[in-house]
Amino acid sequence: MIEARGLAKRYGAKTAVDGITFDVQPGKVTGFLGPNGAGKSTTMRMILGLDRPTAGSVTVNGAPYANHKAPLREVGALLEAKAFHPRRTAYNHLRALAATHSIPKARINEVIELTGLGPVARKRVGGFSMGMGQRFGIAAALLGNPQTLILDEPVNGLDPEGVQWVRHLARGLAAEGRTVFISSHLMSEMALTADHLIVIGRGRILADAPMDEVLAGSSRERTLVRTDDAEALAAALGSGSGPVEVRRPAPGRLEVLGVSARGIAEAALSRRILITELTPQQASLEDAYMDLTRGEAEYQSLTTDHRETPGHP
Ligand SMILES: Nc1ncnc2c1ncn2[C@@H]1O[C@H](COP(=O)(O)OP(=O)(O)OP(=O)(O)O)[C@@H](O)[C@H]1O
């Protein structure tokens, strides 16, 4: 269990984390999402005692990280910035880590087996591919058989088999009653892995809810429309009441949010506008995330409303 209360971090004039309060519950995979620069890594670093909060507090399994006598047995972490000696072998690294916590040698072999590192365990980590490096980082995180796992972008650089492996691993650890806290930018993967989501933007919490609720929150229906008169249809829909949004991904095409397909057809019929395609879209985590974080990104591209639509060249 991770408990953050009014947790804040400022770097000079920059507020990276702005007084956030949340719990990460055991027995679940909790996804930690947010645009670049939202404060995810800073939050994870504070949980692990690597950054000192400017205000507030955070505990893991009931105590601040630094107060745990054997922290590797409490919390296992994979962080983006790794500090491994490149000339040491994976096995020797794990052995050195294990020695600091009186972890038996048998456990080293267990985590090597579990993470599929067997063939490279005696090789220097400096020569590892990105995927092997991730597997090695996860092996180190699991070494102390900790109750809580914190994984910052664990699927970064992994091939599809590796991505699936991390998903099964995370779900298996949660099923054993452990606390699993994972950050990722891969929405489709997060949708399959997490039970609960915490979404932050500019250092503040935008959502803290079960996956189902976050998906339901994006219940604004989304429909792709092709028409000979996009201009007129957009104007007709825009004049309706409610949270309607009409995007213009390409000439002759509209992406309509907040109106049913029938509502769009009726609006078109009443104005004698020809529709050549009307395709309702399934709510995805990516849609829900985009809705939640719109305007929250620190670095925004100018083309966010021009997303490619599969099957529509
Ligand atoms: N050591 C530092 N000194 C100054 N500013 C920092 C420092 N570390 C982070 N920041 C700033 O704090 C903000 C939050 O950064 P953080 O790395 O926590 O975001 P993030 O959500 O992990 O982003 P990403 O998805 O890009 O990894 C950013 O604006 C970043 O530039």
From TrEMBL:
It comes from the Bacteria. Keywords: ATP-binding, Nucleotide-binding, Transport. Pfam families: ABC_tran. The keyword Transport applies. InterPro entries: AAA+_ATPase, ABC_transporter-like_ATP-bd, P-loop_NTPase. Residues 2-227 form the ABC transporter domain. GO terms for molecular function: ATP binding; ATP hydrolysis activity. Belongs to the ABC transporter superfamily. This is ATP-binding cassette domain-containing protein. It comes from Arthrobacter yangruifuii.
